[in-house]
Amino acid sequence: MSLRPQEGPQERFLSTPADIAIYGGAAGGGKTFGLLLETMRHTEISEFSAVIFRRNGTQITAPGGLWTESTKLYPLLGADPRTSPHAQWTFPSGAQVQMRHLQYDTDVNAWQGSQIPLICFDELTHFTRAQFFYMLSRNRSTSGVKPYVRATCNPDADSWVAEFIAWWIDQESGLPIPARDGVVRYFTVVNDSVVWGDSPTEVVERAGLKSVAGLAPEALVKSATFIAASVYDNKALLDANPEYLANLMALSRVERERLLGGNWKVRKTAGSYFRRTDVDVIPTRPNDVVAWVRRWDLAATEPSEVSPDPDWTAGVLMGLRSNGKFVVGDVVRVRERAAKVRQLIQNTALMDGRGVRVVVPQDPGQAGKDQGESLVIQLAGMMAKAVRETGDKETRSEPFAAQWQVGNVEVVQGHWNKDYFDELEVFPSKQAGIHDDQVDASSGAFNELSTGSYNIGNAL
Fold it and tell me: Tens of pLDDT along 397-407?
């Protein structure tokens, strides 16, 4: 039996001598498979162990995640699985590979005193700098295997990883520099600052390192490298799932440049999601809409001296046309207290008609669940439901933004257009006084339409 990496970046990742190797920088580059292969390298050594970290536990067991993929590989070497109290494989020699999470910075305290010859981080940009460098202190070994670290990642311009691998990235274009790909450099950390050099000697001189406990100053220096990969390097994936490339190309501009292009400098800035010039404004609602959804984003505060500019309650009516396009048909928004907001939702539902599905958000926690359920009860006789929101606003808006940017969204002309376009065009600005209530409602309506099952009978 022979397991081999794919030629190219994955093979270079598994052959680098660096103490720390960071691999990927785009989606679909075979990153998870590369990590799993790396953990299998020393499993014939009884005292060897490896830990693969994800930021939270659900990412480990999610479909297509670490655990699922490991079940295709580890049994080939006779490993036995265990899922409780945590995901773990034990090989015939006694070697172990664990899959654990580090959700909070304080979770690293559970690893005090640990000796882990191989530490792996799947999606390193999800972890904090403090988590990474603390776990680096646990990277030690008495198994005969020199301790080392392997990590994968996608680009994130605002992460500490972007700064750590800056030498390998063109700071103008944001793209990896081919001539530096896989080049090993050296570093040490002095007063929380990383000091780099092209050799251990250079690092010692730049950092002013001295001998410690009889060890040469070079012993305080670690080696690191970055190896770029993209979906184009993953021949196995493209052969098995050629449509995956189309999925990446359908992402919004920012996510497409990050996950397909491997760009480490592109950011989510105002105007990068919803430009009004990307959509057509049509005079009336089209008559070929197969399904309508009114999605609400809730607030319950009036303007006051204490809060002169509170959030809005916004209800966006969106339809799915028979030609596959999406149309924003109407927007209602107010700043009122809870009782008037409830009345508005009910009155709007009656005006929209029974053919329009009404969706209200359900905030986390029991209070949010109670609120969502009570609103659905109030809308008895209507197609109504409460949906729990997950993820940050930018992530939730990505699918809608992708369709907006390729011209697959239309907006019906109305008095509400200016406020609607003004808000969407500055998203995701963090500037004080900028609201995103209509963005949230629009994203929720789109997600309902794109994931639901609708037919012509749902049309108005």
Answer: 999 999 999 99
